[in-house]
Write the structure tokens for this entry.
Amino acid sequence: MFNSEDRPTGNGTVEGYDARVPSAAHRIVAIQGGGSGDIQRLMSLLAEHWRASGLRVTGVVEDVTPAVRKARGGSLLRNLSSGACYPLYQDLGPHSTACCLNPAGLAEACQAVIDDMDQSDVVVLSKFGKLEAERSGLFDAFVHAGMLNKCVLTSASPTFSASYSSFVGTFGRLVPADAAYLTAWARRASDVPRS
């Protein structure tokens, strides 16, 4: 399905994106330019493809079940190694106005990724969003991946582009949802010797 020899299909709309040059120097790339569900499905498919081609992949993606409320299990983080699912939201009742994100589910998902990370070539983390910008959510997994010099695939909405860019500095970039480009990046980035 994905072939690094294919011509990239990106439209170049993400600033700084050059479809011809997947740089191994960018250890962390964040996909932009598509619906959240489409990006999560792309990351899941890429992880399967990369694993089949011999790369060791760990991480989590968000699975959304249409027509099921998020707080009733309609949005879960799925571990790519074990298949375990972690609830992203908790049901606080119909009259609650509080944030219904499930900190316990996120913490458990984050720790499971960290536990698997030593033996991985590529780490997939569903998103760098509001919680990560506030140094919560999957933030510890991002930090641990950086300490181990792992390459990381994630997503970031335009709302959190500045926070993401500030966090990754020169080691990361924003890229479009381009399977061929991302496959070439994963192969190059995972071949970089670890110091």
Summary: Residues 28-190 form a domain with the Rossmann fold fold (CATH 3.40.50.300). Residues 1-15 have pLDDT under 50 and may be disordered. The longest helix spans residues 36-52.
